[in-house]
Amino acid sequence: MTGQEPGAQGAAAPGAGPAPEQDDPAADESGPDGAAEEAEERDQPQNAWSARRDLIDHSPRTMNVGARTRFSGGYVAGDQHGVSGGRVTGDVIMGSKTEIHHWSFSGLSTAASASGEIPRATLERLAASFVAAEETVGDLLDRLRRERVLVLSGARFTGRRTAALMLLHRLGASPVHLLDRDTSPGALAERCTASAEDGGQGVRGYVLCDLTTRRGNPLREPHLLAVRDRLAEQGAYLVITVGPTAALEDVPAAGWRPPAAEEVLAAHLRARTDEATAARLLGLPDVKEFLGRGHQLRETAAFAQLLARYAAEEVTERAVAGFSLASLENQVQEWFEEDESAVPLRDKAFLVALAAFDGGPYALTAELSDLLYRFLQKTDNPARVPEVPVFGTHVGKRLQLARARLYEDDQHTEWGPVTQTMAAFTDDRVSLVLLREVWTGHPSARPALIAWLRRLADDGRPLVRTRAASTVAVLARADLPSAMALVIEPWATSNRFRHRLVAVNSLTLAHFSDTPNIPRILDAWSGSEDRRLRWVAVRAYALIGPERPEQALAALRQAARRLYAEPDGPDDFDREMAAELAEAVELLLLSPAAAEVLAGLLGHLDDDRAVRDLALGGFINACRRTEGDERYGLPLVLGWYARATADDETAAQGIARLWRRALGDPHATRPALDLLREWVLIADRSTATEWALAALLPKLVTSEPEYQRLSHLLRTMPGEDGNPPPPVAARLLTAFG
Question: Which of 255, 277, 295 corresponds to the end of one domain?
Answer without folding.
Answer: 255
